Each structure stands twice: as C-alpha cells, then as structure tokens.
Amino acid sequence: MKPQVTRLTILLGLCAVIPGPNAAAQEPASDTTAQALFVFLDCNAPNCDFDHFRREIGWVNWVRDREDAHVHLLITAERTGGGGQHYTLDYIGRGAFDGLDKSLSYVSNPDDTDTEVRERLTRTLALGLVQFVETTPLAPRLRVVYQAPEAALVQREEHDPWNLWVFEISLDGSLESEKQESSYSISAEVDVDRVAEDMKINFELSARYRRDEFEFEDGEVEVYTSEDHSADLLIVWSLTDHWSAGGGAYAFRSPCATQPDHRGCGPAALGRDPRIFGRNPLPT
To answer: Among 14, 182, 232, 279, which is disulfide-ready with 177 (CB 3.0 to 4.6 Å)?
Structure first.
C-alpha cells in the first residue's frame, strides 16, 4: 500500500508595513499615496473581484483610467480540458515603467471553490506587482512573508497477516417435500483473491448436489441424484502502468445422474422421470 502524500502549496505574500505614530507624524498619508504605484486593472475573467483586490492589495493606487496608470494589468482566462481555468496575468509597464513587462499564470482546479480561486488569484496578482513596486519609494515598506506548509500526513503502512489474500466461502441449499415427492439441493463455493501492485490472482471452486425422490401409484420409489463441480483460475501480471498480461484455466466436471436401475448422462439419465413419460405419482 502506497502512502498518500498531501499536495502542498508554498505561499508568498506581500504585506505593507504599517508606520507607527511617529512615522505617521513625520510623513503625511497623502504623500504615501502619491508615492504608491498606479495600477489599471483590465479583467473580464471569472472571479475577477476588483473590490477584493483593492482591499487585499492596499499598497498600490487602483485607477480607473488607463492613461493615469504606471502598470496596465490585463487578466484573461480560458477553460482547461480538466474543467478548471487557466489565468494569464500580463503586466504592461507605462510611462517611467515603459518596456518593463511581465507575465504570470495561474491554473485553478475544477473542484476549487470561488473563494479559493479568488484568494490564489489575488496572491498571484500581488506577486507580479513586486518588480514594479521595488523601484518606488514604498519598496522599504514591503516585506516578504513565507508561510511554511503543514507537515504532510504520511499514512503508516499496516501489517497484513493475510498478505493481501481474501477468502470468501458461501453455502446455499433448498428443500421441498410433498406426500409423493421430495427434493433437496445444496451448493458451495469458495472464492480466493489476491490483488497486489504487480499481480492479481482469482481462484473459484464450486460444487452442487441435488437429490429427487418420487413415489408412484404402484408403491415404487425412485431416486435421482446429480452433481457437478467446477474450478476457475485467473492470474494477471502488471507490465506497465497501462499494460498487463495474464492467463486463466477453467475445469468443469458433471458426473452422470444416477437412479436405481439406470445410469447415464444427460436426458437419458432422467428417462424415467414421471413428469416426462407420464407415470404420474399418486394423487394427493
């Protein structure tokens, strides 16, 4: 049994250092805003939440006119074959940043919630703005935060005293009885399986026995019995992740049915069955 390894994601966040009271007194908030990067967001892709971006990334100025921006941020998305979204974030420098361009991408999983996609898209967006902010007076106010991943849960391999072998035994039977006739049957089956990474084995063994007893109007009693046995074996070896090879064998044995004065196989063995040849049992 292979241990299950949890996928881990390393997060890189950017936080603005909040100045203390003394710093606030020395530098007005308006000057800080004027020194921040001006960004114009151009996005019609799913989960492009402008209000969320503005709240989470407060260390840039979000403008509504592209002509006022230092960076034109274009976000597009296309659906992947697996059902997720492939986001492309193009950072286009303008004015003093003309020629400083960058492109990042983020691929969401089909089972991600809108909240998860929005948060990861926000982190990717912020990461791409770093190279522009690092040339502004606000660069010393930024710090990189690394969030360590949680320890992976490694499933401990348990000891299997049966070594992957699985045994199944089943038993079935029936009983019918009337004044002039009675019958019963019994069947048994043993199923043995072993499924491992490199081999699969399946073995089945079955047996069936049936007994019918009839009493005729002249007092004669006849008994018919039948039985059969079968065995089935299948072995498959794994060659690669997509190919396997194997073989099997099957055996079946059905001895002749028996009755007091006749022994044969097939319908002849039941030739004196009164239901076929008209010797009806005594009326009830």
So the answer is: 182
Domain range spanning residue 175?
165-277
Looking at the fold, whether 189 and 88 belong to one and the same domain comes out as no
109 and 200 together in one domain = no
- Average pLDDT of adjacent 10-residue blocks, the chain of 284 residues: 39 38 37 78 90 90 92 93 91 91 92 92 92 86 79 70 92 88 92 91 94 86 90 92 88 70 42 37 40
| One domain for residues 127 and 20 | yes
Residue whose tokens read 């710090």: 143
Please choose, from the candidates 151, 239, 229, the residue with its C-alpha nearest in 3D space to the C-alpha of residue 189.
229
**Cα(90)–Cα(102) distance, integer angstroms:** 6
Domain co-membership, 203 together with 118: no
Single-letter amino acid code for the residue at 51: D
Contacts of 171 (CB under 8 A, 6+ apart): 186, 187, 188, 189
Residues 118 and 170 in one domain: no
Q: Looking at residue 3, what is its pLDDT? A: 42
226, 134: one domain: no
d(CA 235, CA 179): 50
The amino acid present at 231, given as its one-letter code, is A
For 150-203, the DSSP string reads: PPP-PPPPPP-TTTTEEEEEEEEEEEEE-SSEEEEEEEEEEEEEEE-SSEEEEE
Both tokens of 52, joined, read: 């969320």
Q: Give the other-Cβ count within 10 Å of 124's Cβ.
A: 16
The answer to whether residues 236 and 246 touch, using CB atoms and an 8 Å cutoff, is yes
Beta strands 181-195 and 199-215 are: antiparallel
Q: How far is residue 51 from each of residues 41, 42, 55, 106, measured CA to CA in Å?
A: 11, 13, 6, 20
